[in-house]
Amino acid sequence: MKVSFQIKLFISLVLFFSGLFVLLGVYYYNDVSHQLYQEMSARAKIQAEEIAIIPNLRQSVTDKDIRAITQFMHKVVAHSDASFIVIGDDKGLHLFHSVHSDVVGKTLVGGDNADVLQGKSTITIRKGGLGISLRSKAPIFDDAGKVVGIVSVGYLTSYLDTITLGKVINIFIAAVLLLAALFIFSWFFTRSIKKQIFSLEPREIGLLVRQQKAMMESIYEGVIAIDSASRIEVINQAARKLLGLSQPTRELRGQTIGDVIASVPFFAKPTMLESDTHDEICRFNQLTVIASRVRIMLEDKLQGWVITFRDRNEIDSLSAQLSQVKRYADNLRIMRHEQLNRMTTLSGLLHMERYDEAVHYIQAQSEHAQELLDFISSRFSSPTLCGLLLGKAARAREKGVELIFDPLSRMSSPCRSLAEAELISIIGNLLDNAIEATQRAALPHDPVEVLILLNKRELIIEVADRGIGIDPAIGDRIFERGMTTKRSGDHGIGLYLIASYVTQVGGSIDVSANAPRGTIFSLFIPETGNVQRPVVTLEDQTYAT
Asked: GO MF annotations for this entry (predicted)?
């Protein structure tokens, strides 16, 4: 028979609290017993030491006057709650016993007199003539300071256990009444819980929670769920990472969204109540994001909202990288188009049987191209990098700009600290910027000088142009995302990407003026990770405008 969740929860609560009361009872019993033993130990010790210093008793013990001791001790026993009081001499023989008077003259029982006869007070639990007892013994000194007797004050453990049990019974009666009240509370509590969880079984609820958690953490976008009072209910790891939040999720839960994200119109209550929104560009703290907001409705009542957002910069970076690939493909198309034009011209000359002119044309066209091809293919081992450099050189020629490679350029092996795609992006962006800056300068255009040198210590990339230079107004911000002086197109990402790639591998960038005009970009990328340079240095420059 399948038991309902309400019954299972009720039984679980009853069993749990019953077990808890049993454990608490055992603990309380042991604790009360321990405290009682400590209290009685202290009481016995005080009584023994006080009796031991009574002058009349000290003198009677010294004289071993049993009658005087007995008369005096009966008065003391009448005012004591101890189970027994015993007086012994320095030989360990009874001089007085408050319960058994017939043991006078016999040896003290227990074997714990040695330390007392040495002048020390003791507290022990031993078996004596009356049974097991907690007792304290104190030495009796004569006027000369010599131990002449022993005072023993004790409480039977059976007496202590009776006191403890009486206290526990009182607590047990109260616990039974409390447990009965708990049964009633548990029954109504389980009924209320069942209504709130829509009669779902715990296993089903657990599965839903695990599915939600896995789904939230698997989402690449930041996700925040807030209630109708704008308090955070759920926030995933991506959201915390994007917003730069170091607090764990449990600490963020319950905070208002305004405590986590600086106030923006996106979170204004009238705006959220008005309508949902999708792919809205917002500023969350210091991050530009693309955000969406959807309401949570339950039984036609607003319960809150779900906000999803993603970093706009990542989309821009991806766009810039795709643009770089597109430019690379364009370079190849330009080379193909240029080659087709040359082949068409050569074909025409051959058809007209102007062989001498065809030979001169081939020599004129191929001499520089072959020289450049031979230089690049012999100095650089990466086919991708060779293709990029040849394509950029061809594109520069179409725009009236010449690329000149430094004779020291050489990269016979891959750079270990940079991926090839990152290297292509860095060199491609530097060359594009240099070509465009040169093209915007006054005629005639000076060539763009390029140095790419990989040694055992570092990769050096230097691109020098004599273009329009860098505007001093933005000289300190040229590596910021979106910063550009270009008038059209998808710009403002290239230098940001360059700085990001170089910084990630511990490299540095030096930017200096190229007198009389233009700019020199010098990149130093460590090959072994031991190069120590400032990340970005803007040297003293006189920029052309």
From this structure: protein histidine kinase activity
